[in-house]
Amino acid sequence: xxTKLTSHYRRTGHLVNERGFLHLANRLLGECGVSDxxxxxxxxxxxxxxxxxxxxxxxxxxxxxxxxxxxxxxDASLATLPIKELGDIxxxxxxxxxxxxxxxxxxxxRMTWLLIHGLLHLLGYDHERSPGEEEKMLAREQELLSKTNxxxxxxxxxxxxxxxxxxxxxxxxxxxxxxxxxAAAICELAGASGIVVHLREDRRHIxxxxxxxxxxxxxxxxxxxxxxxxxxxxxxxxxxxDLITLVPEKREELTTExxxxxxxxxxxxAKVIEKMAKASIPxxxxxxxxxxxxxxxxxxxxxxxxxxxxxxCDALNESMCEHEYELLAAAAExxxxxxxxxxxxxxxxxxxxxxxASLDTIEELSIGHAIIARSVFTGLDKAVRDMLAIIRQAxxxx
Length: 398
Hints:
Blueprint: E1 3-7, H1 18-31, E2 38-44, H2 46-57, E3 65-69, E4 85-92, H3 93-102, H4 107-122, H5 131-148, E5 158-162, H6 164-173, H7 180-189, E6 194-198, H8 208-217, E7 222-226, H9 230-239, E8 243-246, H10 266-278, E9 283-287, H11 291-299, E10 304-308, H12 310-313, H13 318-338, E11 341-345, H14 353-357, E12 362-367, H15 369-378, H16 380-396
Parallel strand pairs: 1-2, 2-4, 5-6, 5-12, 6-7, 7-8, 8-9, 9-10, 10-11, 11-12
Antiparallel strand pairs: 3-4
């Protein structure tokens, strides 16, 4: 990969989406016509950048960004080697945060500008050389900044809300409230882009009456989660939801556990997809972030894949979380490459959704329990709007 990104900055966890920042850097190299060159980017805190300043510039103080062109100070013999290296950019995240507050701009905008500014210095621009050079560099910065708005491969990540848990509360008393149909309407009014319900074989929460009324009243999109059960398939074909998501289903589980294994039941799942296709109903498959499963999903005609985020959400420590996140990020990229439309869900909450929403190949997140749980304290409208705010902010983080 043309850009090598190293981060020594760990104070704010996922403040910087490193995969997204890499994508941004590589796109900028392409825009500048140097995509065949290697670039090194280092993210540090104020203390480390002060040490670097002191060592190389005799200035014992932090700065926002430093650039070190590869050729500066290098032995002349290196020019004869087949090395295409631009140099190093070092960014202080501490200073970027302060400047974002000072200039009243989103943090991601500040980081984007610092990356562009550092890259242009590597390419020979120097605003300190003369007023003319300063004007030339500023114009190029503005040009590149305007183009970064188009770098995200999908539009704003959508939020689909699963209202199963509203029905769970209703069924606990065996009465008519709270009504998941009413909850769905509130979610839509608050900005949700779709409603998700899982019609289980044992009807433990969502009932046939619910899906019929939801089909009649939903103004956005109805996603019917279901197992590949003959009776449920018949209901789906009659109901004609906007989308079905095939999930594994076990009677004894509290909620869906793990992704669907389509490798072991390829023919069965392919037949369901074929039936739905004849009824013009798109099919999404709920899968673990496994490239082999993705390849089969494409082969048997799925339109969407919803990546199972459960292991990421349940990670016991930061190392495990980072590992699971990388698996999800790689799977999202691979699914997009295959031509699948990528979504994600399961276990996402107000603390862990941001990094997943920032993946630019993820079109939609399916979230239920966390939103319904928060609504007990804040009301459903605010719970939905709070989650949407997290997603919007994450979409801005590269």
